[in-house]
User: Fold this.
Amino acid sequence: MTISEVKRATRMREWRGYIGEQQASGLSIKEWCARNGQGEARYYYWLKRVREEAIKSAQRNQVGAELIRVEPDQMVVGPEGKATAGVELQPGIVVRYGQAVIEYRAGTQAREIAMLLKALDEL
Assistant:
């Protein structure tokens, strides 16, 4: 990743936060910008960019990511694609993103899964 890409990603995260703050505040965009020292034109510029990025991300996720529930009665597939017998299974969540497969067992904190999904969203 180049420096300019890192800077843009940082600004994108920053503005996603600002946009979320404005929406949660109950203030109009004009009022929020005035109170927070932001120009309306700049706000709308970043709102457009954040929306465009959200659309791209949703399109990538439709193609590359899949969430499935793992039931206890399913077989576990070990390395080399062979079914592993005698493994005690627990319900959980499997996240598939491209070639990556991440499995969470029952009892995993929701925030851990949310952090992973957020990181995948930012790829």
Notes: The chain has two domains: 3-60, 63-121.
